[in-house]
Amino acid sequence: MEEPKYPWETINMDCVTGLVPGGKENFNACLVLVDSYSKSIRCLSCHNEDTAMDTALPFWNNIISTCGILKIIIIDRDPKVISEFWTNLYVIL
């Protein structure tokens, strides 16, 4: 894979689950996004039970709206989950 040329062009995305519930909304998972260019990390609080739309909306609000459209997103998840995520992201657009 080609090295990214600028920040937030390419990211790795995964979800850490099974965390101790915390905060006023009892979040028990975290969506972790790593910029391949700068190695900076953004963590979005979430729940183990979140749907694809529950994930797509904070992704849009916290990543796309501030960093722009990404060129490559690397996700190590079930293809069905990835498809649902992208479908919901396009609904938001």
From TrEMBL:
InterPro entries according to UniProt: Retrovirus_Pol_polyprotein, RNaseH-like_sf, RNaseH_sf
SUPFAM superfamilies: Ribonuclease H-like
Lineage: superkingdom: Eukaryota
Gene Ontology molecular function: nucleic acid binding
Full protein name: Integrase catalytic domain-containing protein
Source species: Austropuccinia psidii MF-1
